[in-house]
Amino acid sequence: MNDRHLLEQHAITPKKSLGQNFLHDPNALEKIVEIAGLEPGATVLEIGPGTGNLTRVLAGRAARVIAVELDTRLIPLLEAATADLPGVEIVHGDILEVDIGALVGGTPYTVVANLPYYITSAILRRLLETAPRPRRLVLTVQREVAERLVAAPGDMSLLAVSVQFYGQPQIAMRLNPAAFWPRPDVDSAVVRIDVFDAPRVAVPDEKLFFRVVRAGFGQKRKQLRNSLSAGLGIPKAQVGDLLAGAGIDPQRRAETLGLEEWAALAFAVAQAG
Ligand code: SAM
Question: What is the pLDDT of residues 23-39, one digit of tens each?
């Protein structure tokens, strides 16, 4: 039965506010699971299983699939759709609130999800900035977001720096709106992020590093001297010295900096106390 009929049967209408666009294309579902490269004993955390389309394919390739769904209306339907799959655990909750460590129980895990687009950045931050980090993430996201994640210096954003600090993102596949029901207004892409054992660059302290990066991106298209001064509450002249210490021209803008340069700047800020 397709998603539309299944939901109609349960008198459920998809909620746009929860990013409910269900992926029904069987080839796309298969490919996403292939991209995840799961080993037979794998533990998978799925965010937003919806009607269980992806969950069922995942269950065929992983030992455990922990699927966290926020929408109460979908829980009975999901439980029925996965009742014959002993490796699947349906968890009713908000992915931004649940205790991921307690759910995965100390085993390495992979995240595979067709994300609710309205909270993509918050989910990425939660998964990458708090332990235990997944080994890999395979995420369907809005195509523009996918392109932002893999950006190079010149087009960097706070999101790109954060993701590339923890892992290597790559766009693995593009998806047409027709692969979903209801059709989203935007194009989608599948991103694979291979998470490093340790961050890409050494930093004095991760909190300070992100404070500096956030300050740098705090004022759109402003020169670093100005955005850092405002964001860190340091006089411009001192910011100029810090940037010089890190070998960075104070007239550059945040989007032009690479990870090594942000790290050098964080060290300069740490040294200055
Ligand atoms: N995985 C399904 C598929 O591919 O057909 C559904 C994907 S749909 C784009 C996103 C799903 O995330 C919806 O089922 C929605 O209810 C769920 N969702 C939205 N916000 C959530 C949250 N904060 N925590 C967990 N699930 C959420």
Answer: 999 999 999 999 999 99
**CB 114 within 8 Å of CB 36:** no
Closest CA to 3 of 142, 186, 180, 140: 180
- The helix (H) or strand (E) run that includes residue 212 is helix 206-217
Pocket of ligand 1 from Cβ distances under 6 Å? 18-23, 47-50, 53-54, 68-71, 94-96, 114, 116, 119
Give the tokens for residue 112.
């595979």
- Domains detected in the chain: 3-195 (3.40.50.150), 206-272 (1.10.8.100)
Average pLDDT over residues 78-105: 97
The type of residue at 159 is L
Inter-residue contact 47 to 95 (CB < 8 Å): yes
Whole-number Å distance between alpha carbons of 263 and 272: 14
Question: What pTM did the predictor assign?
Answer: 0.96
